[in-house]
Amino acid sequence: MRTIVWNEKQKSVEIIDQNALPLEYKTVNLLTYQDVVFAIQHMTVRGAPAIGVTGAYGMALAALHSTKTELDAMKAELHQVAQEIGNARPTAVNLWNLINHTLAYINQFDGHVDELKDHLLNLAHRLAEEDVETNVRLSKYGAELINDGDHIVHHCNTGALATVDYGTALGVIRMAHEQGKKIHVYVDETRPRLQGARLTAWELKQYGIPYDIITDSSSGHLMQMGLVDKVFFGADRVAMNGDVANKIGSYMLALAAVDNKIPVYSVFPVSTVDAEISSGKEIEIEQRDSREVLDITLGKEIVVPSGATAVNYAFDVTPNRLLTGLVTEHGVLYPPFFEKLDKIIREE
Ligand code: MRU
Fold first, then answer.
1. Which of 26, 172, 280, 333 lies most in the core, judged by the most C-beta atoms within 10 Å?
2. Which atom of ligand 1 is nearest to the CA of 163?
3. What does CATH list as the number for 4-136?
4. Is the CATH code 3.40.50.10470 the one for domain 145-347?
5. Is 150 tagged catalytic?
6. Region of residue 194 (phi > 0: left; psi between -120 and 50: alpha; otherwise: beta)
7. Is the CB of 267 under 6 A from ligand 1?
């Protein structure tokens, strides 16, 4: 399973349509950078690392279709495109981190425009490969935290679908399973878009890992009954002090875990760290359409009163004090996090 592939024949980015899963497995071809922006906004592709790499391919598509013949004019055009792609979703910093990486390459480039087109495509390919290698590496570190027989709560979807391949927090679980450990996963359904119930359950089924879907509010009760050993979730933006913005519900999950003395790990590649911010208070939290919350049918036509309103924050911030450790491709970091993250960022 690879979420993002380059289709050389069509000169397009081919992505798995995550809105269609699990009912239908189909791919969508993104032919232009505008297609990339649309796919990210509408969550056809989602998950912090996956949208970062799709954004880098968006830059390559913009260059490919550019009619500019002067290098400076093409560079100016690509800077504008970067704003459009980078602002498609606000919270996951991987998007801007990889766009900025691409812009840094563009800024120093001093050759022919056709060469720049080739180089940006190769850069996107390289970033895609690096994503997979990074995920395998961090999954090996994380799997050391999992014991045979563990019952794990997992939030949202952090698997192959949320990355180019293999996954982050779900990658850790997958690695432990591949190492022969017998584990069981409680899958938070993850309201309102149900990335857990739809996507994580679908992936776990492919890997043959036993699981049960739970409502997001169930984990505290399961913990009180002694049924949970560990909590793993991903990250969309990590501040330098180790505060983690992740899918809405992660904070309450961490609170329940700490109250029950259960370890909580956030798993992410270093491309999810925002070196510009020192605390989670500075993270912009995406608000999405209230219809995502209100569209509940429970087998009926509609269950909310007509005219009902909703607020729909897509992420929350788990303060570093609630996190047992951060799993990265450089190993597992334990608190205090600031200096450890700072050293990694400076050495990258
Ligand atoms: O809104 P989404 O589905 O893009 O949110 C995804 C998550 O919150 C994931 O847990 C996070 O991106 C980590 S993915 C490896």
1. 172
2. 15
3. 1.20.120.420
4. yes
5. no
6. left
7. no
